[in-house]
Design a protein that fits this description.
With about 100 residues, this protein is α+β, with helices and mostly antiparallel strands. The protein has a domain of about 70 residues: Sandwich (Immunoglobulin-like). About 20% of the residues lie in helices and about 35% in strands. The protein is built from 2 helices and 7 strands; from the N terminus they run H-H-E-E-E-E-E-E-E. Strands 5-2-1-7 form a 4-stranded mixed β-sheet, with no helix packed on it. It starts with 5 loop residues before the first helix and ends with a strand.
């Protein structure tokens, strides 16, 4: 009988998904702090960026609710940008689907 290691599991997940998800597992399994989403909100736009303990790449998409509409925002080169009408009700990750810390500025 062979014991399965974390690396065995990561290899299987990458193979089954067809993607290299090592960036996600590194942040959640190998670092003490969960990723931080830094958010800067303006009247008609917001920008977001991920920070990890190691400073490594982390490109998890995040849902943002704008006036009741859910938008999946995907990072480009580590940054997210979203524009909306002034006065809009904006909530990041309204259903708490991403395990993260949030820092709003």
């Amino acid at each position: 009988m062979r014991h399965v290691t974390t690396d065995d599991y990561l290899t299987l997940v990458n193979r089954l998904s067809g993607e290299d998800l090592s960036w996600m597992f590194r942040a959640y399994l190998r670092e003490a702090q969960v990723p931080k989403l830094r958010i800067e909100k303006g009247d008609d736009q917001m920008s977001m960026s991920w920070e990890t303990e190691s400073g490594g790449r982390f490109h998890m998409p995040v849902e943002v609710e704008v006036d009741g509409e859910i938008i999946l925002v995907k990072p480009e080169d580590g940054e997210f940008r979203l524009e909306y009408e002034p006065g809009s009700a904006v909530t990041v990750d309204p259903y708490n689907r991403v395990f993260m810390r949030i820092a709003e500025e």
